[in-house]
Design a protein that fits this description.
Elements lengths: L15 E6 L2 H9 L8 E3 L10 E2 L1 H4 L9 H7 L4 E3 L3 H16 L5 E5 L2 E5 L10 H16 L3 E6 L2 H8 L7 E3 L5 H5 L12 H9 L5 H5 L3 H8 L1 H10 L16 E12 L4 H18 L3 E10 L4 E7 L7 H10 L11 E12 L3 H11 L5
Parallel strand pairs: 2-4, 7-8
Antiparallel strand pairs: 1-6, 1-7, 2-3, 5-6, 9-12, 10-11, 10-12
Length: 370
């Protein structure tokens, strides 16, 4: 008589891999131009308004980092080779890498061109362990693209992401369930995703510097102090992350932004807002989505970022209406009148699934009959 499944049996422990390409854009440039190998490469347009897209490990030794102003990167590393980004080539390499991942599991959740989560609890490649899958993926990436990837293997997404950074570059780190508590306890709280410098400072003011110290705080007290993020901190301190790997995530927002050649006052931004609204509108149409929330993003000359948003009962009916709403959001910016802005962006969010979104898309995106 055959064995029967216990309906109360716990589901199998998830096995998650986080794959993160090493200095991806810069590595593609060094791969394709042998003269760049071993040299500090900064992927960025030169100029006062440019920011760093990526930096090779040779450049990182000088303190150069992504999103840093290009002028600062040049000061930190005067011998750096600046290369303008070529996203066509980066996307081509990303497609190759994605195909390698999909050979092992259909549960691949891309985070960007250069990183993804994989659920390999039941890999279709038939390899005996998540570690073997991660090793096979890294080996094929190296063989087929001449690029290197780091990977973390762990019971959930949060831990796998930390693990992938542990032995960078070109490394693999495996975190087994029995090792989680001891691994997390001494970590600085800044290693928890979402804990930036401001939150790290707020936690430090409470005497919380490590994940172990955070674990000693009750759930309700963390909730009182930090709201829903307090509950997330409570779970992360215990290595808990129940989020599944989601291979087909719908578009949650679309946006366009532009950095000016010189800083502009708030009342001079309308032409740029109008152009960006048209780009965002076209992107929403291509995605087949109707957003109820209009977002205006601003970055001051001192790199302070502000966002203002408005959620509507119905989506904007045209690019012109989107532009008008985004322009009106400037009235909710309370900075001094002489503040100058280096960047502006216009976005649409608040996409709704199901019948309401389908109706809105039909009204917005189908040409009138007749």
């Amino acid at each position: 008589m055959g064995a029967t499944m216990d309906p109360q049996a716990a589901p199998p422990q998830r096995k998650i891999i986080h794959v993160d390409m090493d200095a991806f854009y810069a590595s593609v440039e060094q791969r394709d131009d042998p003269s760049l190998r071993g040299r500090p490469v900064v992927v960025a347009w030169r100029g006062a308004r440019s920011v760093v897209c990526a930096a090779s490990y040779e450049a990182r030794r000088f303190g150069v980092r992504s999103a840093m102003p290009a002028l600062r990167a040049e000061r930190l590393c005067p011998d750096a080779v600046f290369v303008p980004p070529d996203f066509v080539r980066y996307k081509a390499a990303s497609r190759q890498i994605r195909a390698i991942m999909l050979a092992h599991t259909d549960l691949v959740e891309p985070l960007s061109l250069d990183e993804a989560y994989l659920d390999v609890t039941a890999p279709k490649s038939g390899l005996p362990s998540a570690t073997a899958v991660a090793e096979a993926i890294r080996a094929r990436i190296r063989e087929e693209t001449s690029l290197t990837a780091s990977a973390g293997v762990a019971p959930n997404k949060f831990l796998a992401k930390i693990a992938s950074d542990w032995n960078k570059p070109d490394g693999l780190f495996v975190l087994r369930p029995r090792q989680v508590e001891a691994f997390l306890t001494p970590l600085p709280v800044g290693r928890i995703p979402g804990v930036g410098r401001v939150m790290e400072g707020r936690l430090a003011a409470l005497g919380i510097a490590t994940v172990g110290e955070l674990r000693g705080w009750p759930l309700e007290e963390l909730r009182q102090r930090f709201g829903s993020f307090g509950a997330a901190l409570y779970r992360r301190a215990r290595g808990i992350d129940e989020r599944p790997v989601e291979p087909d995530q719908p578009v949650r927002s679309v946006s366009s932004e532009d950095t000016f050649s010189e800083d502009l006052p708030l009342d001079a931004l309308e032409p740029a807002i109008r152009q960006l609204a048209e780009k965002t509108w076209d992107a929403a149409r291509r995605a087949g989505r109707a957003g109820h929330t209009v977002v205006l993003k601003l970055k001051t000359g001192q790199f302070r970022i502000l966002t203002r948003s408005l959620t509507l009962d119905r989506p904007p009916a045209s690019a012109a209406e989107l532009a008008a709403i985004a322009s009106s959001l400037r009235e909710r910016v309370a900075l001094p009148a002489d503040t100058r802005y280096r960047l502006v962006g216009v976005g649409l969010a608040g996409f709704r699934e199901g019948e309401e979104a389908a109706l809105a898309q039909g009204e917005l995106f189908e040409p009138p009959a007749g």
